[in-house]
Design brief:
Layout (H helix, E strand, L loop, with lengths): L1 H21 L7 H10 L4 H4 L4 H6 L7 H19 L2 E4 L5 E7 L4 E13 L2 E12 L2 E2 L5 E11 L2 E12 L5 H36 L9 H4 L28 E2 L2 E6 L10 E6 L7 E6 L4 E5 L3 H7 L1 E4 L1 H9 L1
Antiparallel strand pairs: 1-2, 2-3, 3-4, 4-5, 4-6, 6-7, 8-9, 9-10, 10-11, 11-12, 12-13
Length: 322
Amino acid sequence: MRTSLIMLFAAIGASLSLRAQTQTPPPQTARQALIEMFLGNGTDAFSKHLPDAARKLLPHNGDEPYASTVFRISTFGRQMVLRGERMETFDAGPAILISEQSQGADKIEVAVEHDSLAGETDEIELSVHFYHDGRPQWISVIPRLIFVLKQEEDIWRLIEVTALERVPLIDPDYLRGLRQQQQEAYESAAQMRINSIATAETGYAAKHPDRGYTCALPALFTQEPDDNSSDDNPEEPQVYYDPGQGSSEWSGYRFALTGCEGSPASKYQITAVPVDSDAGTKTFCADESGTMKSVRGGKISACFSRGEVVSSANDSVIDSNQ
């Protein structure tokens, strides 16, 4: 009896083992096919998912321009593999790919916006999102890709790709990011112009020791004849560039030169105040010392008295010695 039971269990075990060996794996989903196209090893991983007509157009050497265009999608994915320190793909869930770089500080997430399977056709829309230290990074347009795959002879073939640039003008997070980018651009432009004015003031005072500094903004950027030049030794006069072209208002800021008293004037103050006082943009100020400061939400006087130092004359000295 015991021998018969042992033989029965052995037969059942052998039958189950044989069934497991002969059982075919589940068919590949369109999403898995997409992952293979982007990240699979070898060019065939991409080309086998192309329609026959497109695959026949590909030359064997891959040097022709249209061949490089066709393979650009898969090349992009492989470049991410090479750059990424850690990469995960997901057959299901809200994300299809997550790549972490710079020891986890930077992350790229490819999210699945929708996956619409209808018979033998599957439409998959993906969006790309960037993170730094766990926080989403604002970008001016949100890239999206729509892949349409069709099943032919048990293989998912990519039959159409649509690239979109989404600009969600009713998304409050997007609008906040847009405003922040605009503020940063205005602030950077204001700093650049203050540096230009300060450099021109130094040159003007050196050329006109009897006058010293000037509070006439156009005078700083007007070409004047050099009194020391002669026909035998002509010298090109120094000309300074004003990005604001002499205007008191430029790139979201109102500029003013004050404090040029005395003869010669030994002091001056330059200020850049946001035209929109409610924008939350910084106020900048500088004087003859060459130090630029900034303050947010304060008065002009607060910029000089307790503003945060943005740059100083010593910075240029240090840079020139490096």
